[in-house]
Amino acid sequence: MKILIIDDDAGLRKSLSLILCDAGYEVVVAEDGQEGLQAAIEQAPDLILCDVRMPRLGGIEFLDAYHEAGGRALVLVMTAYGGLELAVKAMKKGAYDYLPKPFGADEVLLTVRKAEERERLRREVGRLREQVRADERFGEIVVGSPAMERALEIVRKVAPHDSSVLITGASGTGKELVARLIHRESARASRAFVPVNCGGIPEQLLESEFFGFVRGAFTGADRDKEGLFEAADGGTLFLDEVAELPMTLQVKLLRALQEGEVRRVGSTETRRVDVRVLAATNKDLEAAVEAGEFRKDLYYRLAVVPIHLPQLRNRKQEIPRLVAHLLERHRQRLHVEVEGVEPDAMEVLLEYAWPGNIRELESVLERALVLAEGPKIGLDDLPESVRRPAPDGPMLAVDGDALSVRRQGARLEKHLIMRALDRTGGNKTQAAELLDLSPRALRYKVQEYGIE
């Protein structure tokens, strides 16, 4: 613990220094309030012992200046006989306690140790509060890998701003959870969060769903109806599977984002909307742009801040915490008494490739909870496909689905990327040329496959 002593009495500074140094404290000294203020800012002590009456800058003025500069250390004021009124005034200004002069070594150490214990408790309470806030903030999201920590750090930074965010990652990695977290941490948290699955709406209904319609606009339109943009006014519109939008709607969506206006189908009037748009996809949107399947200008409008969520097989250190979290949630819902997972079953869960990511893990655990007869989920409670992926040879040893074109294609792609990076000494621009990919597409795939 570092202690700053501020006193114009050289003898007192020396005696206090000896007492505190002998007790194991690190000591810094200053001759007056002005010098003490500079030392307090530069040295960042944990505790300050400050005389009330000093030249250049007295104790009361020091407290004002120190707190104005953002100082947070506890301050103990020292005052001679008859200076009690000044000590009380200092405590009203934020001093923690006071020491009346003259004082002995035991009195000094007792007061300092009380202050030290108070500071320790304050920091512990702060740590616990921050932990609670983090648990509340992240909700269903379990963070336990460097990749997810990076993703959540971006979430923390971007949430307060209205920038568009594109969340990428394979199905089941938690893209909608991240979108909801961004909304919850934004100034729009009290307004609507409107999710829409762009691949789940028939193409002929997309425009009316997004922008609404007026009565008589088409057969069956017997009343006015607001669209998703109007429903999300003041809040957040989440476009899941955004790559599935047809080109015709992409044009109208881009116009709505640029102008901040929408026009209901069948109407000639435009309506102003204040909507933040978050989008998600499990596809390589850059590749879709290069193939002419997605508008480049809309891509840049949506991907102002990209966030990539890695697959579960690339963040396996999170699996034990995920398992505990999911078991607790479903155990209460299903009213079962299963308390955990046997070690051999957990080993299997850690070894499995999880092609369906967190969604597949959740399904497997719910099934196991229903079937388990003991207090913990055992090996026999897990499905055969997880316990014994069919041993079809070396291709299976990596991903667990030797006959899956998609899975083995991904393995081959990862292998080629690693060879290209090895051949170019890690130069991603040169590797992208060898692989016939754009540099940005290569960066996406490097993240996707967890290539270091």
Please give the radius of gyration in angstroms: 31 Å
Structural class of the secondary structure composition?
alpha/beta
What gap, in angstroms, lies between the N and C termini? Answer: 40 Å
Strand tally, please? 14
The averaged pLDDT comes out at: 85
> Oligomeric status of the shown chains?
single chain
Q: What is the overall number of helices?
A: 20
Give the CATH class of the largest domain: Alpha Beta
Q: Could you describe the largest sheet, including whether it forms a barrel?
A: 5 strands, parallel
Short description:
The protein is of the alpha/beta class and about 450 residues long. It has helices spanning about 10-20, 35-45, 60-70, 85-90, 105-140, 145-160, 175-185, 205-210, 230, 245-260, 285-290, 295-300, 320-335, 345-350, 355-370, 385, 395-400, 405-425, 430-435, 440-450, and strands at about 1-5, 25-30, 45-50, 75-80, 95-100, 165-170, 195, 235-240, 260, 270, 275-280, 305-310, 340, 375. The longest helix has about 35 residues, at about 105-140.
Please characterize this protein's 3D structure.
- By secondary structure, the protein is α/β, with parallel strands linked by helices.
- The chain folds into 4 domains: 2-126, Response regulator (Rossmann fold, 3-Layer(aba) Sandwich), CATH 3.40.50.2300; 146-308, Rossmann fold (3-Layer(aba) Sandwich); 312-388, Helicase, Ruva Protein, domain 3, CATH 1.10.8; 400-449, Arc Repressor Mutant, subunit A (Orthogonal Bundle).
- 50% of the residues lie in helices and 13% in strands.
- The protein has 20 helices and 14 strands.
- The chain has helices spanning 10-22, 33-43, 59-68, 84-92, 105-138, 146-158, 175-184, 203-211, 228-231, 247-259, 285-290, 296-302, 319-334, 343-351, 357-371, 384-387, 396-399, 405-423, 428-435, 439-449; strands spanning 2-6, 26-30, 47-51, 74-79, 97-100, 165-168, 193-197, 236-240, 261-262, 271-272, 276-281, 305-308, 340-341, 376-377.
- Strands 2-1-3-4-5 form a 5-stranded parallel β-sheet, with helices on both faces. A 5-stranded parallel β-sheet has the order 7-8-11-6-12, with helices on both faces.
- Helix 2 (33-43) packs parallel to helix 3 (59-68) and helix 13 (319-334) packs across helix 15.
- The model is unreliable at 130-138 and 390-401 (pLDDT under 50).
